[in-house]
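Bit of a strange request maybe. I'm writing a small parser for structure token strings and I need a real example to test against, not something I typed by hand. Could someone generate the tokens for this chain?
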Amino acid sequence: MSAKPQARQAPEGASDMAHIVLTFDNNAHARQLYGQFDQNLALIEQKLGVDVRSRGNQVSIRGASASAEQARRTLDYLYDVLLKGRAEIAVSDVDGAIRMAVAADDQLSLPTLERKGRMAVAQIATRKRTVFARTPNQDAYMRALERSELVFGVGPAGTGKTYLAVAHAAMLLERGAVERIVLSRPAVEAGERLGFLPGDMKEKVDPYLRPLYDALHDMIPSDKVERALAAGVIEVAPLAFMRGRTLAHAAVILDEAQNTTAMQMKMFLTRLGEGARMVVTGDPSQVDLPPGQRSGLVDALSILADVEGVVKVHFGEGDVVRHPLVARIVGAYDRAGNKNKAGA
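Reply from user aminoacidic:
Good idea to test on real output. This should exercise your parser:
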């Protein structure tokens, strides 16, 4: 059962102020919701500019009407997450819920609103973990992954592009919607020096594919990942290994796609086979190709702009879900880049 809000009348002369009281039926979940020393409530206060106080299984919210309603949505949503089996609520979960609650006030953005203003946030569920959207663009991306055969996720580091794509692929494999997962990256950093690295081909390219392995292990138990890799049910390979293949009934992900050439990107996109789902992720602002060589990602986004069935989701500074300082760093670099373009 969800929290039960009780709106209180604001005092005269403060028509834009609200007092909302939430009652939570499950005391154990309420304590998890508040966080250690009420740290989750403190974060809501800080981010939304409201006064939030707990007493037993009740929470009192006071502040501007819009902000108080956003705080109510945040707490109601997080409590529902706990009721659905989440073991704990992390600070990052609270931050994501706040972002979504604020975005819900914009009628043109996701998430959708159910009756009584409750949030319906996109999620990806695997046996090991359930991942919830933490920003409106993540929500749009996760919904696009569910309904589209070819999705481009474009934007800066830390926005969850690759992580969510791998999570979705793991979910499709568990459902039986695909027969295998194929994860690929261009090993641009190694270039012609690849042959001089120690070990066999797998050992040479594994360092460049490590982020994909990490995401896999987050979604699937480690022993199952190793068995699936050995059986070829999960394949992690550099982009060069994709040439000449047709990838059918597979979830296929190309990461760091900004480092593909135009010909490599065309080659990869035309690997799409029957019953396959393909996701291309990358950051056009971090191209490691030789000077003067056009990024295959940038090229594809232009060429495929009007192609039916191709969905493009663009992430920005506000979608960074790592340390808050990362978002400010991304913003600073974006502003510097725009300034340099203007002066060119």
